[in-house]
Amino acid sequence: MSLHPSPRVLEERREDGDRSLALRPLPARPPVPPGAARPRLRVLDGLRILAAVLVLVHHYTRQELWGRDAFGWLTVVGRYSWTGVELFFMISGFVICMSAWGRPLGSYLRSRIIRLGPAYWFCVLATMGVLLAVGKPFGGAGPGLSQILTNLTMVQTPLGSAPLDMSYWTLWSEVRFYLIFAVVAWTGLTYRKVMNFCWVWTVASLLAPGSGLPVLDVLANPTYSPLFVSGICFYLIRREGARAGEPWALLVFSWLLMQRWLNDIVHWNTVKGDRLSWEMCLLVITLCYVVMAAVALGWLDRIGWRWLSVAGAMSYPLYLLHQQIGVTLLKQWSRDVEPWTLLLSALAVMLLASWLVQRFVERPAAGRLKRFLEARPAPRSVRNTAA
Questions:
Q1: Does the pLDDT of residue 10 top 50, yes or no?
Q2: CA angle at 280 for the pair 277 and 285, rounded to the nearest 5°
Q3: Cβ contacts of residue 367 below 8 Å, gap of 6+?
Q4: How many domains does one find in the chain?
Q5: 33 and 12 in contact (C-beta within 8 Å)?
Q6: Geometric angle at alpha carbon 128, from 123 and 132, rounded to 5°
Q7: Measured distance CA(12)–CA(127) in Å, rounded
Q8: Contacts of range 374-379, beta carbons closer than 8 Å, 24 or more positions apart
């Protein structure tokens, strides 16, 4: 994939009035027409499934689940593998900017509903079924009807309702990102508009904590906004070329903001009696930045195995299913089955379940939902004639 700007990008630069004409002679591939299928970056699919498995390992190897260190070196890895969520957020910034480019607002919003809705609704109902069958997960009471119905909205967090699965907390961060990015997607994306959006969001994230305005704090999402902004910047580098200096500058600033908020994130992920190394967490986050930079620069484009597309599609249902269902069932059998056997069996079952959900629930349901959302009412004259 060429790292040079396309003719359309150069035209956008001339319209925005913020680029040197010296960049104009660089050749590039033709621009992707609006609505056309975009080439799939399978390396991102691989990173998705890697992030999901890392989060699974974090939840399945926790010492409080087993009452001891049952996995040795893997337990150490699991203490830090919650950082898969941070990688998810960077990938999301990259992919959402890429998929929204050249799309009208309605198409962008429909694509988000189609992508998130079917698998999520099914997994909520599946989790509900397991919780009702088992009884008191995590020592609490089974879910009530209102909690289940509220979880189906995907906005249970702002509504003050407990999630059926604690992993659902990330969805509120994602939904907020989709909504505020829709503002810039409304009038069509250009390099200048997207960069301005990233700067404005970054400034809002700086002001939000001390503003005393809960609405600003909710919208800006200051703790995780640097990751989404970083993902967007990586896509702009991918699109514009390595010599686009402004995204690199904002990336450095976003990394500095991220290391500050990492103090809070490490505290939230520290179990009583444990001590996580902030330096190790920062190293892992920095490695995520390095890998995403390699994607942006095209260094990993040769990773194009077809199975990665399937694995990437499985990552979303795997993330939705793994924690509440998996931990609940692990607790049921942890005294009767050897830990490594039970862990590997649970991983295999979750991967199989994720593939089944993606293949037989998400794909057909997404197709039907797309046709429903894109259906147009018949013209009035046609309706009158039919009547």
A1: no
A2: 125
A3: none
A4: 1
A5: no
A6: 150
A7: 47
A8: 374/110
d(CA 174, CA 168) in angstroms, rounded, equals 10
Q: Which domain holds residue 112?
A: 41-375
Tokens representing 32? 């992707």
The tokens describing 280, both together, are 């190790």
Instruction: Provide the terminal-to-terminal Cα distance of the chain, rounded to the nearest Å.
Output: 55
Is residue 239 within 8 A of residue 254, CB to CB? The reply is no
- Say if 8 falls within a structural domain: no
Instruction: Look at the block and give the residue holding tokens 């989060």.
Output: 55
Domain membership of residue 178 (yes or no) is yes
- The model's pLDDT over 290-324, given as tens digits with 9 standing for 90+, comes to 999 999 999 999 998 999 999 999 999 999 999 99
Structural domain includes residue 251: yes
Tell me: pLDDT of 196 over 70: yes
Report residue 61 as tokens: 């190897």
Report the pLDDT value the prediction gives residue 270, as an integer from 0 to 100.
Answer: 85
Which helix (H) or strand (E) element contains residue 164? none
- Nearest-CA neighbor of 194 among 110, 101, 87? 101
Q: Rounded CA gap, 14 and 20, in Å?
A: 9
Residue 366's pLDDT is 94
pLDDT bin (cut points 50, 70, 90) of residue 275 is: confident
The model's pLDDT over 206-262, given as tens digits with 9 standing for 90+, comes to 999 999 999 999 999 999 999 999 999 999 999 999 988 999 999 999 999 999 999
In a domain, 135, yes or no: yes
